């Protein structure tokens, strides 16, 4: 077990959130799922409600592709094989590459703590690479989600889609579901477009894995740390 485990804050992620506040405070990325399928009625209800998410002038710039069963498994295999080819990602969006020093520290610390929760030693590159590939396997979740848009990509479209993603993730807690938003699922958009029969005009922005969290998973209990309010929020009178 990694020496980082002693630094990990854990919470119980089982059960259903009964309030918005509870969903906000208990939601975190889930990377270990039960094989149990999500009921079709639950998926329809969740994604119907998710469309209430706010957007610029009600533009609703997203299209949502929900894959389960054999279709999800095939996409997982295709994306994993593509990633194993050591091909560089070719996303439709520009992934950020520069961050302020305080953000870099938070990102590095997060990575080390996730590896610790997963039982991966810092120097074990093979294990880290295998863990990375699980992104393309939807971390074993029964359902994957791809968010696409035909809008011109810009800052405000990104804000809208970010709001939409958060709406899905908070709603998921009310059904006892877990989720993890993933830029990695946009790494090979041509694979997604071809398998889902999408037009070239649909840009793959990001993805999301969705399912019932595995309750006995240390990785799932890891609660991502946050900065103190005094470091990020200022009040004015």
Automatic annotation (TrEMBL):
Residues 25-212 form the Nitroreductase domain. It holds the Pfam family Nitroreductase. It comes from the Bacteria. InterPro entries: Nitroreductase, Nitroreductase-like, Nitroreductase/BluB. GO terms for molecular function: oxidoreductase activity. SUPFAM superfamilies: FMN-dependent nitroreductase-like. Keywords: Flavoprotein, FMN, Oxidoreductase. This is Nitroreductase. The lineage of its organism: Bacteria, Pseudomonadati, Spirochaetota, Spirochaetia, Leptospirales.
